[in-house]
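Q: what sequence does this backbone want?
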């Protein structure tokens, strides 16, 4: 009987975070017409390090939890107002999911069952 040797392999950080389809997006060196080698910068797909606004975000989350206003409420109202201002719009509506956002857009445009929507 031969002994089986198991070698522990360390997965690269990208292998643990990126799905296989996105791993091909790593920068590769390429030649330009002049023959010089160039490479694209790495794109941080998932950055979980705390940012400079972490304390403010945590404070807002704590206020929402303490008040019990997970929907509607003063925090959402303030966000909608600030977002509308940032976008140069008169109004904005906060929703829970992207699906809710799409449903509202379709209703606002009068698009319903049987209508054709072409996307790119």
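A:
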């Amino acid at each position: 009987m031969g002994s089986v040797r198991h070698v522990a392999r360390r997965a690269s950080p990208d292998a643990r975070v990126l799905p296989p389809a996105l791993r091909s997006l790593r920068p590769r060196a390429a030649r330009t017409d002049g023959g010089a080698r160039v490479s694209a910068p790495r794109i941080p797909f998932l950055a979980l390090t705390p940012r400079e606004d972490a304390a403010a975000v945590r404070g807002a989350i704590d206020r929402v939890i303490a008040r019990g206003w997970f929907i509607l409420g003063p925090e959402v109202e303030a966000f909608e107002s600030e977002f509308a201002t940032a976008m140069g719009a008169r109004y904005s509506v906060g929703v829970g999911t992207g699906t809710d956002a799409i449903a509202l857009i379709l209703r606002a445009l009068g698009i319903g069952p049987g209508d054709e929507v072409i996307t790119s």
